[in-house]
């Protein structure tokens, strides 16, 4: 039997894993923290009850995943009334030594694709493809049969692969392109900007109805994206923005500050060849940036 002290230590030991799993299911820091709080309460009650827990990790992951799935409907309802494109809440992370985990675990581009899966498909994909859980363990977590889980896994993998072919971008190149992109965008160099953008580049701007200059829908096409960036940079960007390069959602990215207050997060997604920008994810909703003060 675990006493309260032991139970607290065990939960703390698994908290990073639980946060990563739940965040990849929900895409929001506040929602993730709420799920972890509910998981802790369930865990503490189980420890206090005196029932033996043979595999604390499996128990905690199962509680966290199912609590996240139960919360998904409320999260989805909120997003139906969200103003403009919704992007995952950016999280400053430490780079992983494993490129596959780094890209698939928390990248902004992948999380946007995961939003198009059903909650169960997303749970299976995250647990299997990101964290390496075998189908039999996932079946136990979700209270489904292994054949049902394998079917969900095949469907989710095909869906993700069709929208985001798997490749591991070079981190140094991604950082270099991000620097060139911001220099061109903030410096008003339209020719350099056009040269960097892929013909079918798409830009998502998440302002949540609270930040000026955010488009109400994704903008696609080199010319349209370049014009939008140039217009926003010329008319709405503060003159003395400070750029701090950080690892955001697993990728080399930029956090822009206006007088030490987070102003925007810019995440650049490259083409498979790595020579042009395929996607731009700009989070300017202040509600999604306030926690970056603590992470900087």
UniProtKB/TrEMBL annotation:
<keyword id="KW-0805">Transcription regulation</keyword>
<dbReference type="InterPro" id="IPR013324">
    <property type="entry name" value="RNA_pol_sigma_r3/r4-like"/>
</dbReference>
<dbReference type="InterPro" id="IPR013249">
    <property type="entry name" value="RNA_pol_sigma70_r4_t2"/>
</dbReference>
<dbReference type="Pfam" id="PF08281">
    <property type="entry name" value="Sigma70_r4_2"/>
</dbReference>
<dbReference type="InterPro" id="IPR052704">
    <property type="entry name" value="ECF_Sigma-70_Domain"/>
</dbReference>
<comment type="subunit">
    <text>Interacts transiently with the RNA polymerase catalytic core formed by RpoA, RpoB, RpoC and RpoZ (2 alpha, 1 beta, 1 beta' and 1 omega subunit) to form the RNA polymerase holoenzyme that can initiate transcription.</text>
</comment>
<protein>
    <submittedName>
        <fullName>Sigma-70 family RNA polymerase sigma factor</fullName>
    </submittedName>
</protein>
<dbReference type="GO" id="GO:0006352">
    <property type="term" value="P:DNA-templated transcription initiation"/>
</dbReference>
<dbReference type="GO" id="GO:0003677">
    <property type="term" value="F:DNA binding"/>
</dbReference>
<dbReference type="InterPro" id="IPR032710">
    <property type="entry name" value="NTF2-like_dom_sf"/>
</dbReference>
<comment type="similarity">
    <text>Belongs to the sigma-70 factor family. ECF subfamily.</text>
</comment>
<dbReference type="InterPro" id="IPR036388">
    <property type="entry name" value="WH-like_DNA-bd_sf"/>
</dbReference>
<keyword id="KW-0731">Sigma factor</keyword>
<dbReference type="InterPro" id="IPR007627">
    <property type="entry name" value="RNA_pol_sigma70_r2"/>
</dbReference>
<dbReference type="InterPro" id="IPR037401">
    <property type="entry name" value="SnoaL-like"/>
</dbReference>
<dbReference type="Pfam" id="PF12680">
    <property type="entry name" value="SnoaL_2"/>
</dbReference>
<dbReference type="Pfam" id="PF04542">
    <property type="entry name" value="Sigma70_r2"/>
</dbReference>
<feature type="domain" description="SnoaL-like">
    <location>
        <begin position="179"/>
        <end position="261"/>
    </location>
</feature>
<dbReference type="InterPro" id="IPR014284">
    <property type="entry name" value="RNA_pol_sigma-70_dom"/>
</dbReference>
<dbReference type="GO" id="GO:0016987">
    <property type="term" value="F:sigma factor activity"/>
</dbReference>
<keyword id="KW-0804">Transcription</keyword>
<dbReference type="InterPro" id="IPR013325">
    <property type="entry name" value="RNA_pol_sigma_r2"/>
</dbReference>
<feature type="domain" description="RNA polymerase sigma-70 region 2">
    <location>
        <begin position="11"/>
        <end position="70"/>
    </location>
</feature>
<feature type="domain" description="RNA polymerase sigma factor 70 region 4 type 2">
    <location>
        <begin position="108"/>
        <end position="159"/>
    </location>
</feature>
């Amino acid at each position: 039997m675990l006493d309260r002290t032991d139970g607290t230590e065990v939960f703390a030991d698994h908290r990073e894993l639980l946060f990563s799993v739940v965040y990849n299911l929900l895409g929001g820091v506040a929602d993730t923290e709420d799920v972890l709080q509910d998981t802790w309460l369930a865990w503490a009650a189980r420890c206090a009850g005196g029932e033996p827990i043979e595999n604390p990790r499996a128990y905690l992951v199962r509680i966290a995943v199912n609590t996240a799935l139960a919360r998904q409907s409320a999260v989805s309802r909120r997003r139906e009334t969200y103003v403009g494109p919704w992007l995952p809440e950016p999280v400053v992370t430490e780079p992983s030594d494993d490129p596959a985990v780094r890209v698939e675990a928390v990248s902004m581009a992948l999380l946007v694709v995961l939003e198009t899966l059903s909650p169960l498909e997303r749970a299976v994909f995250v647990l299997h493809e990101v964290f390496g859980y075998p189908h039999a363990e996932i079946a136990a977590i979700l209270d489904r049969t292994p054949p049902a889980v394998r079917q969900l896994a095949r469907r989710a993998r095909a869906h993700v692969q069709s929208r985001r072919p798997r490749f591991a971008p070079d981190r140094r190149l991604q950082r270099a392109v991000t620097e060139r992109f911001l220099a061109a965008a903030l410096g008003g160099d339209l020719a350099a900007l056009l040269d960097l953008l892929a013909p079918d580049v798409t830009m998502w701007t998440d302002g949540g109805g609270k930040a000026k200059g955010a488009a109400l829908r994704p903008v696609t096409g080199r010319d349209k994206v370049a014009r939008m960036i140039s217009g926003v940079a010329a008319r709405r960007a503060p003159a003395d923005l400070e750029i701090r390069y950080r690892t955001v959602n697993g990728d080399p990215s930029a956090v822009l500050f206006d007088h030490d207050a987070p102003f925007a997060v810019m995440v650049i997604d490259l083409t498979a060849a790595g020579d042009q920008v395929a996607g731009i994810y700009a989070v300017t909703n202040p509600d999604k940036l306030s926690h970056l003060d603590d992470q900087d």
